[in-house]
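Q: What structure does this chain adopt?
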Amino acid sequence: MENTFDKKSGFVTFIGRPNVGKSTLMNKMIGQKIAITSNKPQTTRNKIQTVYTCDKGQIIFLDTPGIHKAKNKLGEYMDNVAEETLKDVDIVMWLVEPSDFVGAGEQRILKTIKTIKKPVFLVINKVDTVKKEEILTYIDVYRKLYDFDEIIPVSALKGDNIDTLMNLIYQYLPYGPMYYDEDTVTDQPVREIVAEIIREKALKCLKDEVPHGIAVTIEKMKYRADGSIVDIDASIICERDSHKGIIIGKNGAMLKKIGSAARYEIERLVETKANLKLWVKVRKDWRDSDIYLKNFGYNKKGE
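A:
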């Protein structure tokens, strides 16, 4: 059958160990922030779908949780989401850091990649942190492990080589219909993005022992009649009473700091003033509870 489409469209997924910069790269490529970022592992917990449309066609990006050795049911859920996503895309982009050390995490991803029959790009991120001559060494190390369709060094943070990467994606994508309207940027409901913004600010403000054990739920999000203010009630869920104290802080200072940082970004997202109220709730060992995982939006099959 003859192809009747004049534009390209398809699905591209990012895969990699936690904290290699998948969310930062996706945000840079679509030109605005959708996925939350932090310097702590396991920031992304759900498959986040974003859309980039231009004259050449449409790319649907899937940002997945980092693949890692699961320590609880939440970890197992995150791994399943990442690996299931690989089956449904047109291009797989494996992000690695600039290094000649291929650790257990990379070996595990490599094993997964060898089972899929899709174009695979190796994207070496954070090249702004090493000398240019070293990059060739790292490329050579990975080239011997797998026959990649493309190997591209980039800096997601600084935007280096992003245009080259986008052009290569369009070269490999099939011709086809647009899946979304051209003004669509994400399939994430606004409530979910707001919850993720709050979680990101908590991750950035809190000490290392707390963040992995927090979730955020939106209890209420309602625009006032004249549209001038949106009232948002949200709960930060943690696993221990001691964590609750840390999140609230002395005289509520930490919670106020999280709320202030989140409010600024939420207002940019919804383009109106936000009246944000935060609470902190303890749900012991929620990351190992099927009921809590489902209630907090982490369905077992990643749906």
